What does this fold into?
Amino acid sequence: MENEYLKEFRTQSIAEITHLAYTSKFRVVVGVSLASGLYLEGSIIDIALNEKQGYNICFDQPQNGITYFSTNSIIAITIRQPLSTATIANETRNTMLSC
It folds into this structure.
C-alpha cells in the first residue's frame, strides 16, 4: 500500500518544491543535488533574482556554513521531512509560484 503523503509530490516540479521549502513557516530540511555533483543538505534561507543569472539560492548547512548556487544547477531535490511538508504542500498547492 502506497503512503498517501507521497501523492502530494507527484506532479510538482523542482521549482515548486524549492519555493515551498523556502516559503514554509516551518524549517524544511532538504537535500539538493547540483549538476557539479555536489550534494547539500540543509534549509533554503533566501531566494533572490539576479538579472544575469536568474534565481540564486542562499542555503544554510548547519555544520558546513552558508552556500550560494543558482536554481539552474539543481538536478534533484529531496524532502527530508516529507510527512510534515506534504501537509504544507496540500494547504498551499494552489498559491505557490514557480521560481
Summary: The longest strand covers residues 39-50. The beta strands are 30-34, 39-50, 54-61, 65-70, 74-79.
